[in-house]
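Quick check before the chapter quiz. The format below is the same one you will see on the exam, so make sure you can read both the input and the output lines.
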Amino acid sequence: MKAISYPLLIISFLLCHAAYSQTSSIDKVKFFEDTSIINATITTDMVKLFRQKERAGDEFPANFSATLPGNIVVNDPILLTVRGHYRRGYCYLPPLKVAFKYKKTSVMKPLGDLKLVSQCKTSETNEQYLFKEFLIYKIYNMITDMSFRVRLLDLELADSAGKKKSISEHAFLMEDIKNVAKRNDCKSWKTGKMDPRDVDRKQMTIVAIFEYMIGNTDWGVSVNHNTKLIVSKKDSMQLPYVVPYDFDFSGFVNTDYAIPDEKLNITSVTQRLYRGFPRSIEEINEVLNLFKKQKDSIYFLINHFDLITPKSKKEIIDYLDDFFKLINNPAKVKDVFIRNARMD
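Here is the expected output.
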């Protein structure tokens, strides 16, 4: 089994190994705290899957097999569901959701339904795109607990009929929003769309600045685009919190298929544009301090993530350098986050 080297790896692995050893089922929180890579195989009718990949909602019976820490052997029937929009038509493998709760006896059942984020195409470049997006989730975990956790897979996609050659690549599983909510003593918000000015103010500011840091404009709270909402279980007066996801259109990842919305008047996804609404300088600085405090940990994570190439490391560190340089310049902070905040 491969391993990633970044903060608390050894401690996390030992704790999770002990937890797995004590049970034959999966703890949905500890599963995402473990930083080791899972060697897994998904077996399904690949011919049918590829033929119907542009039909969102189509379902495919499959099997998920793996050996987890603690020698827990997984051989679970699962259900794959085609999801997504753009990547469904552009990528060779459509975005998928994995239903681990497909059978009551499944070892992975506690995980529920998880999104499987896979490479768009089979190439080293696309593999690096995947690793960069994986890192974005890990970085955001450092900023706030109201974030999706992810688990990296060394995945083999096998054809159940034996007609198509197996595909080996990396992918990652993304935590279910219900589990994100539960970890934060919240529940998922199912009422409908929300105006971004009617959600928790500080959390919305964190999201907007984070999206600016990674150079992502492909999101929108009011249209439920690449964001989810959770709300406090205890405080009925508390406004919903925003949780962002899907970062492959960001400048941080900089995929060859990512282009900005022409309405935004930017020429490249690497060109940052702040999409947050007006805040006071005190509110902005309070949130910026969260990022400043995590800077060293963020850079440590990137520099010790062994699966990305030196070229990729330099690209994303250079990109982050520009952000951290800006947020330490009071004049530029006012210009970007105050004067150029969204008005509609």
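If your answer matched, good. The radius of gyration is 20 Å.
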